[in-house]
Amino acid sequence: MTAARGDAPDVIANARLTGSDRSDPFGTDAVDVHLAEGLVVDIAPAGALPRRGLVLDADGGWVIPGLWDHHVHTVQWALSTQRVALGEATSAAHAAALMGAARPLSDGRRVGGGFRDAFWADTPDLATLDSATGDVPTYLINADVHSVWLNSAALRREGFEPDGTGMLREEPAFEISRRLNAVDATASDPLVAQMAQDAAARGVVGLIDLDMAWNEDAWVRRTAAGFDALRVSFGIYPDWLDRAIAQGLQTGDVARGAVGDLVRVGALKVITDGSLGTRTAACSHAYPGDPHNHGLITVDLATLVDLMSRATAAGIASAIHAIGDVANSHALDAFAATGAWGTIEHAQLVAHADIPRFARLGVGASVQPEHAIDDRDLTDIVWAGQTAQPYPLRALADSGANLLFGSDAPVSPLDPWAAMAAAVFRTRDGRDPWQPQQRVDAATALAASTAGGSAVPARLDPGDAADLAICEHDPLTADEAALRGMRVAATLLGGRLTHRA
Q1: Is the distance from CB of 361 to CB of 313 less than 8 angstroms?
Q2: Smaller CB count within 10 Å for the chain: N or C?
Q3: Is the peptide bond preceding residue 410 cis, with omega within 30 degrees of 0?
């Protein structure tokens, strides 16, 4: 009998083990991994123990702990499959023309995403977009999601007064994204299910969902409809913190009313500054050509301390968005003042003196290595005058900080192999490595792509949960092309196959 998706194999035969912090004696020898009741119960030389029950033949493939993406905007990522891809737009006029040629969605709107206007020679303006798109409400979402370019029809539809640019930034842009993401569940849930299956095909067993919504009800609904492809921990934004506290939600709890235990309460998510691409990340030095622009602190320190204090007292962890060095300093100050536990999300530009504070305070660095490769040219221009360290992966790891890798999908695709390749090789598309001194080794990258992060490497030992993936190459020795193109033969979640190639 051939093991198929949905089955729970009793034995993974003819496998090889890899990963960081190994304690087994097998080296690269073939082994059989015996499973029962969702756990690894034994690992033995291939054929040494009877292979009873359903056997999944790994055919020499490498078994690794199941992978996690520690930062995903789930619905927005799922909906991106229906939106116009603008990543290749070379100018504002080009992006407007792409949108003008696009077919409207069923609700009468055109929506695109992924543009990077910081690289454009021309400046987005309302006249250019209106000329190309006419009276069809049209929305262009920046790759970093911190700005949205709307035509006049869209501005009127959303209740904004048209101005000369149509560009909304930070909270007004987030409000537009929330409205665009608030589609009927009958439309979004199948796309989320497909997203989860695509993730499982990459060896992913879990993700942190940071959609800007009250997420518990949505995940309870999805599990009732049969969602079982991933473990999910969902974030809580400040607008819903009082509700979460009043209802007794605590980080790590199973979502109330959910079928099974795959969905759990996550952390308080607070966005405290802007982004690199929108030139709003809060930095100690001004942006080039704009001496009064140091970015934006969108939540002041006193408010942040209050939010984190209340969350901590209620048993809720904190996940604090901080991109610029000033924002990272403020976030670390707030962790120190409150005794909160959790993560700083992004940590893209960190003062040298702040790097060791992550480990000292026990704050995880939830980072997206592909952003460094996406933004390398922009960083060299926009942050050329900054004295803090951009994308300091190696420095954080060397200081003892816990790295947790993610994608920030849809900002980058949900692909842990791309994140690992970016972290280990600091390059893509044949270019020279960018700031190679900030590379991490492959064992650290793999561990950072699992549930506990680099400081708590997932292991393959008897008694561990059978959250596993079987891949074609050893990720600890694969070159960049092999790591980025890694094929996954099977993914198991609690011993059940969620993907079978």
Answers
A1: no
A2: N
A3: yes
Token pair listed for 103: 């077919």
Residue 111 near residue 180, CB atoms below 8 Å = yes
CA distance 261 to 278: 39
pLDDT of residue 1: 62
Q: What is the C-alpha to C-alpha distance for residues 196 and 229, in angstroms, rounded to an integer?
A: 6
Q: 346: which residues sit within 8 A by CB, 6+ positions away?
A: 321, 322, 323, 366, 367, 368, 371, 408
Question: What separation in angstroms does the CA of 203 have from each of 48, 213, 250, 414, 482?
Answer: 27, 27, 28, 11, 15
Neighbours of 93 (CB within 10 A): 18
DSSP 125: -
Residue 175 identity (one-letter amino acid): E
> DSSP letter at 306?
H
Q: How far is CA 205 from the centre of its chain?
A: 13
User: What's the confidence (pLDDT) of residue 375?
Assistant: 95
427: tokens are 């390059």
Can you tell me whether residue 192 is helix, strand or coil? helix
Beta bridge partners of 112: 84, 140
With 0-12 / 13-18 / 19 or more C-beta atoms within 10 angstroms meaning exposed / middle / buried, residue 319 is buried
pLDDT at 459: 85
Show the low-confidence residues of the chain (pLDDT under 50).
none
User: Phi, psi at residue 7, to the nearest 5°?
Assistant: -75, 160
What's the confidence (pLDDT) of residue 458?
85
What are the backbone angles phi and psi of residue 385, rounded to the nearest 5°?
-90, 0
- pLDDT at residue 19 in the model: 87
Exposure b/e, 331-346, CB count within 10 A at least 16 = b = bbbbbeebebbbbbbb
Cα separation, 265 vs 234, in Å, equals 5
Which of 349, 352, 354 is CA-nearest to residue 294? 349
Give the C-alpha separation, 342 to 71, whole Å.
13
Q: What is the Rg, in whole angstroms, of the alpha carbon atoms belonging to the chain?
A: 23
> What local confidence, expressed as pLDDT, does residue 163 receive?
86
* Amino acid (one-letter) located at 221: R
Torsion of CA 304, 310, 311, 312, to 10 degrees: 100
CA distance 211 to 199: 17
